Amino acid sequence: MIYVGIDIAKLNHFASAISSDGEILIQPFKFTNDYDGFHLLVSKLNSLEQDSLIIGLESTAHYGNNLVEFLVLHNYKVCVINPIQTSTMRKNNIRKTKTDKVDTYIIAKTLMMNPHRLFTTYDLDLLHLKNFGRFRQKLIKQRTRVKIQLTSYVDQSFPELQYFFKSGVLINTCYCLLKEASSPNDIASMHLTHLTHLLEKASHGHFGRDTANSLRILAQKSVGSSDSSISMQITQSIEQIELLDSQVDKIESEMKVIMLSLDSVIMTIPGIGYINGGMILGEIGDVTRFSNPGKLLAFSGLDPAVYQSGNFNASHTKMSKRGSGPLRYALVNAAHNTVRNNQTFHLYYDKKMSEGRTHYNALGHCAGKLVRIIYKMLTDNIPFNLE
Question: Where are the alpha helices (DSSP H) in 221-291?
Answer without folding.
Answer: 228-262, 274-284
